[in-house]
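notes to self, project folder thing:

trying the whole complex as one job this time. last attempt i did each chain seperately and stitching them together was a nightmare. two parts in total, labels are on each line so i dont mix them up again. if this works i'll redo the older ones the same way
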Amino acid sequence: MKTFSKIVLTTAAAAVALTLGLTTTASAEFPDKPINYVIAFKPGGESDVTARFQQPFFKKMFNQDLVMSYKDGGGGAVAWAQLNGMTGDGYTIMGTNLPHIVIQPAQKDVGYTTDELVNIHMFHYTPDAIVVKDDSPFKTLKDLTDYAKANPGKVTMSGSAKGSSNHLAQVTFDRLAGTKTTYVAFAGTAPSSTALLGGQVMASWGYTTVPPQYAGTRMLAVAMDKRHPNFPNVPTFKELGINMVSGAYRGIAVPKSTPEALRVKLGQMFQKINDEPAFIKQMEDNGFAMVNAPYGPKLTQFMTDMKAAILTSAKEAGLIK
Amino acid sequence: MSGLDFVVAALSPFHVAIALAGVIAGTVVGALPGLTATMAIAVLVPITFSMDPASALILMGAVYTGAIYGGAYSAILLKTPGTPSAIATTFDGYPMARRGDGDLAVTLACVSSVFGGLVGAAFLLGLAPPLAKIALAFGPVEYFWLAIFGLTLISALSEGHLLKGLIGGCFGMLLTTIGVASVSADIRYTFGSQTLIGGIEPVAALIGLFCVPVLIDLVAVPGRHLKVPTETRGFRLPEALSLAWRHKFNLVRSSVIGTIVGILPGAGGSIAGLVAYSEARRSSKRTEHFGTGEPEGVEASESANNATVGGGFIPTLVLGIPGTPPDAVILGALLVQGIRTGPKLFVGEESSIVYIFIAGLFIATLLMFPTGLLIGRYAYRFIVTVPKALLVPTVAFMTIIGTYAIRNNLSDVVIMIVLGVVGWALDRCGFKPSPIVLGLILSRIAEDGFVQGWTIGTARGNVVAEFFARPISIGIIVFIFVSLFYPVIARRWRIQQEAKNGHET
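result (full assembly):
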């Protein structure tokens, strides 16, 4: 009997070991084929470009390709509404954007709700910033607020779309600074910055990514907690007494049928890219700012905070009821 | 490096090989409706990571220029623009193909495209930094008027049926308002439907309105699709070259228009082709033949749209502002490579990248000549000789794949088919697809420009001055009036002349 129980035990142990071994190898092998990375916007936009930044690092670290596809329409809503209908095997991931995924469902039925989207990582944001041309008479933020107070509504500021991060920033800024400016919505950051460079508007609600890409522009202030490492001379709004930290946040989501283990795994994988100094340098040189919120309590907390903050400022802006 | 060194660097076997491969791939992609230059380049981006920046640019530039040319095949042979840039090519290209001159039209398109491409590249080489200023000179109001100028073409395209043309144009403009408005972010006319939230994708609408009616007619009408030539006539190259030589002013004018429109970030190949076509038609001695298979129409559209390639690179490389949608993708790829665009790119240490690329673009454009002729010959022979029973399902299949591929969305396919059937029915009642498509493509530009111009004008305290007192706006408004009333004036003048010379009839 002794031997029998021994055999049983060893078999059981072996079975357990085998199963364990299998699961570990299975998860170690993920990904064993290219991952489809769906971008909810047109190719060439900032959501696409930052995903492209991740692409070579992903290939180097995990020896698989990220394959981009584009599903633009409805300001991203078309893609996000379809995400949960896709296969949740870890091989389909989709870029998500804040404040879009909070504001869109709060405004109208767009086929998804914020909480239905399973984000697995938030990896960076483009902080809002007031951008002017190099030769603008506004040398400091105070110059602009003084002028705006003396001439209500005269200061025209371009920005990317309405109900967007730029638009929220403009409304919040006007409220906090006690100014009245005119927001002129353009179809994206590129046309908005073009309008600034062409002198069609006096200033622009852009991002910290604008000066690196468009020569001849400078920023008056950035909506960050601390100054951007790439622009140590540009003050934050906070320093100037205007308490705002905002921007367009970008992350990655998976279909909700994706198993918990894969969600964690993917979150860790993209965090590993975020930890890579070369990646950080590339992002920051181009004006982006890092966010490190992989799947888990950190991301849950991040999303809860962001959702509350965005809904509050959108309500104050009169964008939602 | 001096000038010659750049040419030598661009002529390295690797560069010539990728330029050739790029042009061929681009031509094929461009010929398939729905598969656009933007898409082709986006697919290529990861491949370019392993290349040096100049090679990456040459490859993407070659694909781009090939795709813009390839759009002409389906425009001529199937009345379906392969890319939106080729819309104006359908106006005369398809009638030419119908009467049996499809081979000539394809060859002429090739000659014109190469010419336009070379002119665009020459401007990029010689005058990029000063010309980039044009991109900044156009504000919202100028785009509004430019779109209105494009819409005046409706009156030219619907001679004898002006009212129906205008109704069609308004229908197209209404279709654009469906979905999320690009400026105000309002969700309009979706009637609570998820299918409509993404709006009517212009390329899907193009395929539906142009191609589906052709397919229905192919099935409904006995007889061949295109008139089959009685004998094989080769490329008809001498004939095409002599036509091009006769219309050299048209080619030069259209190429310059194409370059300038390419520089404008808010416009693109479709508007370039339309404006060039409109100008060619107005200044031609054979105005009344336009729309019935006039070679000048094909030349204008095709030279202009290929000139936008070089033109579009001007603001992209000098200002970091993408001149056209494919340029936006190329700019993204350059960012990943660590290349900072800006005026310094043309003078600083990195200028060799730009100059090798421009040399490469010239080479790619020249390579388009032989490859374009060969592929065009093959495409023509296929469309002419293949039996209808094979042609219709093949094309129908391609329209569905192509429409889906635009943004990986099944809704677009549904919308394409519905619009196609509606378009066919409307065509029966005398509402042609071209005005609808013009309304669809141009009204978005017009609406954005109008709303932005209005907002800025209100802030400045004078909306009227904003719209009517800016020098470039005034210039475009003058062109609008000329374009609208020139035919009337010209006709009256001609009648007077004839009256003087005594009646002949």
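what i see at first glance: Chain B has a mean pLDDT of 89.
need to look closer tmrw
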